[in-house]
Q: What sequence folds into this?
């Protein structure tokens, strides 16, 4: 007996639209079961995760802070994935962008100018793009799998950051803590509102999402990405460059991840340290697929995933669970998103050894 996936002749418009909501509902159901197995009240746990963080103004600001990098990274990844280029290394590009953008406030702390902050953002943008150019070069020149190369480069970036903040960039007045000196006020992203810490990184994310949605819907470049992603042969027949699209999509996603990195360091942390991300680069993959690789949908999914981060922190205090539960929640969400999308497009066929078959669809 073997199980096969057979493509459906037609796709249900209803399930195609509501698939992310169904995936979210299944995540909540199985999350409740998980909490019950942990000996916690499922309703109280889900309340702590998804309702409690929305009741205070300061908590809403924290939600925006966490959603900003997720949305910014995910919209770049959505372009990659729609072009059939699988960048899994956004976490490393996030880190390198943070390092590149921090060069000015770390090495030239005495320079005070209105140009400091824009230059930091530009350098972070370029740093992430340059780091993403490594898997782009390896794929176009040597046909190397970009999934493996981009993923392995994550660990190099993280170790490089750790070496910097424990070594040549460590603050001599920081009591031997592994971090750089605090950024000056000219190197810190300003707050959006006086009522909390939310900063302009979220605005960068919204602008990027709207701009890339416009590109994919109304511009030739977006049409080219869509065609090559669905059929490279058809794209080449139309005269589109496959290697050019590889470079464009990887550099763009890396640049946005780098911008997210320096925005996070400048706006939320205020200095470099060994850990600057709770896994934004990997969680953004879930955000991209939960948003159906649509930049506008990614705004909503980014807020949902940011809520799981914030809710996970609240649940640790209120009901005493491990921070690993947050990762399980996010993993469940990705599993159900991909499962629901797969079953919309394919039906399950079971083949027996003697040729007898049985079909079923979920």
A:
């Amino acid at each position: 007996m073997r199980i096969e996936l057979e493509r459906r002749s037609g796709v249900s418009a209803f399930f195609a639209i509501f698939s992310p909501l169904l995936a979210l509902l299944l995540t909540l159901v199985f999350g409740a079961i998980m909490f019950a197995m942990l000996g916690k009240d499922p309703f109280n746990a889900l309340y702590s995760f998804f309702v409690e963080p929305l009741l205070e103004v300061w908590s809403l600001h924290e939600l925006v802070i966490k959603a900003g990098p997720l949305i910014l990274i995910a919209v770049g990844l959505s372009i990659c994935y729609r072009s059939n280029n699988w960048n899994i290394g956004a976490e490393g590009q996030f880190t390198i962008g943070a390092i590149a953008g921090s060069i000015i406030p770390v090495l030239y702390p005495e320079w005070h100018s209105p140009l400091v902050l824009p230059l930091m953002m530009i350098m972070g943008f370029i740093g992430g793009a340059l780091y993403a150019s490594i898997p782009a070069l390896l794929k176009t020149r040597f046909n190397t799998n970009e999934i493996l190369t981009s993923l392995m480069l994550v660990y190099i970036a993280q170790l490089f950051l750790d070496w910097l903040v424990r070594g040549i960039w460590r603050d001599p007045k920081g009591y031997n803590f592994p971090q750089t000196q605090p950024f000056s006020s000219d190197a810190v992203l300003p707050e959006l509102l006086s009522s909390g810490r939310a900063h302009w990184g979220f605005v960068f994310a919204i602008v990027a999402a709207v701009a890339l949605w416009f590109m994919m819907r109304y511009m030739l470049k977006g049409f080219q990405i869509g065609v090559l992603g669905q059929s490279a042969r058809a794209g080449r027949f139309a005269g589109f460059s496959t290697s050019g699209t590889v470079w464009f999509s990887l550099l763009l996603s890396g640049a946005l991840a780098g911008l997210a990195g320096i925005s996070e360091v400048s706006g939320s942390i205020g200095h470099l340290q060994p850990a600057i991300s709770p896994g934004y680069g990997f969680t953004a993959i879930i955000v991209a697929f939960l948003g159906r690789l649509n930049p506008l949908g990614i705004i909503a999914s980014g807020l949902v995933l940011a809520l799981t981060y914030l809710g996970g922190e609240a649940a640790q205090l209120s009901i005493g669970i491990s921070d690993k539960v947050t990762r399980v929640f996010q993993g469940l969400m990705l599993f159900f998103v991909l499962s629901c999308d797969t079953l919309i497009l394919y039906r399950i066929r079971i083949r027996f050894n003697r040729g007898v078959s049985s079909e079923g669809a979920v």
About this structure: The CA atoms of residues 48 and 315 lie 5 Å apart. Residues 356-362 have pLDDT under 50 and may be disordered. Strands lie at 2-7, 346-351, 357-360. The chain has 14 helices and three strands.
